[in-house]
Amino acid sequence: MFALEIKNLSYSYPDRTPALEDINLKIKAGKKTAILGANGSGKTTLVYHINGIIPALEGGVTVLGLPVCKENLQLVRQAVGLLFDSPDNQLFSTTVSGDIAFGPRNLKLDPVVIDQKVHDAMQKVTIEDLADRPPYCLSLGQKKRAAIAGLLAMEPRILACDEPFSGLDPIVAGQFREILDELIEKGSTLLYSTHDVNLAYAWADEVVLMKEGRVLSCGSYDLLRDENLLQHASLPLPMLAQLFKHSKEQPRTMEEAAVLLEPQPQVSQAKNF
């Protein structure tokens, strides 16, 4: 089953510079799909088409069987939660809690339900103490967490994230990945852009490699062991793929690699007397 289908999608900037050229993709439901590419490859532009932030000029996008068009935008944006790379593009209310409540209020939910969703979302990203703070007074990491909480409060079936972990310290980034993993286990779908090949190699189920607005290849994370393909995409080989490229073992995480590299205890031979 596919959560997203993109057919013959092309887009050019106002100065006619091509940004996307004839993109055709099917994104599997319930999976984590990484869109990988160097700067200028079209990752962000593609993500912004998923819920209509950028309207399709040629071709189109279908979300859960629903075409992304002006008439369907409200339904599409209920289904697809979009996380911007810069939280300043996402936060606009006078308080953090007000920002997180904005989406649920637009759905005209019961105020008690809204309050609970806001509380739960802030608790998940540990920003309860920031509830009454104005977003413009926060640090970048705090802003990012507030934006993530706003996304979580909507409980979208699909999460489209542009560089979701940029600006987060390793601990908070790890916490956010755990939250996303929980959502995937419950049936959500994640599509995220990144240039971090190590993250994609360790965490993605599927990858889409892009260069200059075109899809070079798509498939499982195994594609990230193809050194020639990654060179074509102007991306480095993941660190663990490089380290173990001549080994039959192919660990994806540092924890798996540490187990393989740990010295094995010597078995002493019993002496016969």
Beta content: 15-25%
Order of helices and strands: EEEHEEHEHHHEHEHEEHHH
Number of helical elements:
10
| CATH architecture title | 3-Layer(aba) Sandwich
Give, in spatial order, the strands making up the sheet with the most strands.
Answer: 6-7-8-3-9-10
Main sheet makeup = 6 strands, mixed
Shape: globular
Number of domains: 1
- Annotated CATH homologous superfamily: P-loop containing nucleotide triphosphate hydrolases
Q: Which runs of at least 5 residues are low in confidence (pLDDT < 50)?
A: none
Oligomer: single chain
Layout of secondary structure:
Blueprint: E1 2-12, E2 18-28, E3 32-36, H1 43-49, E4 58-63, E5 66-67, H2 73-79, E6 80-83, H3 96-106, H4 111-124, H5 140-154, E7 158-162, H6 170-185, E8 189-194, H7 197-203, E9 206-211, E10 214-220, H8 227-232, H9 239-243, H10 254-261
Parallel strand pairs: 3-8, 3-9, 6-7, 7-8
Antiparallel strand pairs: 1-2, 1-4, 4-5, 9-10
General description of the model:
The longest helix is centred in the middle third of the chain and has 16 residues, at 170-185. The relative contact order is 0.16. The chain has a six-stranded mixed β-sheet, sandwiched between helices. The radius of gyration is 21 Å and the shape is globular. With 273 residues, it is an alpha/beta fold. Helix 3 (96-106) packs parallel to helix 5. It has a single domain (2-89, 157-261), classed as 3-Layer(aba) Sandwich (Rossmann fold). The protein has ten helices and ten strands. Strand 9 (206-211) and strand 10 form a beta hairpin.
